[in-house]
Amino acid sequence: MADEQSEAFTHRIRVRYSDCDMQGVVFNSNYFVYLDDTMDMWLQERLGRHFHEEFDYMVKKASLEWDAPARMREVVEMRPEVTRWGRSSFDVRVRLSVEGRPVGTAEFVFISVKPGAHEPPVTVPVPDEVRAALS
Predict the structure, then answer these.
(1) How many helices (H) and strands (E) does the chain have?
(2) Closest by CA position to 26, among listed 76, 60, 85
(3) What is the pLDDT of residues 82-130, one digit of tens each?
């Protein structure tokens, strides 16, 4: 796995026309697409491109508290951080903003699973390397 990173990670996504609803703002479900991409990019940066070979996870719970709209062509910045470590689970908070203006806050509970074993999800301890890289 990749070396530990100490700087905060920020992922940026430019809002496309097709991401917006009739009101001209990001359609609510698209925020979760942005957040999924953010998690993937964060883990790739911290754990390496092929992290799924050694570590895999599944979403147990996801929520998004909306603060303000993001509009077409704006750039949404997302900053993930682990807020809790369990034996085989961890919580992540992702703050979303546009030019410093809060857009929302997402909260996730993830479970660590054995790579390739998804039915039923069999939890495994979160590897120490993952804890170190994301803390």
Answers:
(1) 2, 5
(2) 76
(3) 999 999 999 999 999 999 999 999 999 999 999 887 777 788 999 999 9
**Do the Cβ atoms of 77 and 35 come closer than 8 Å?**
no
Helix, strand, or coil here: 57? strand
Residues whose CB falls within 8 Å of the CB of residue 135, separated by 6 or more in sequence, listed in order: 82, 85
**Residue 76: how many CB atoms within 10 A of its CB?**
24
Quote helix, strand, coil % in the chain, to nearest 5.
25, 40, 35
The whole model's pTM is what?
A: 0.90
Q: What is the CATH number of domain 11-134?
A: 3.10.129.10
- The domain segmentation of the chain, as residue ranges, is 11-134
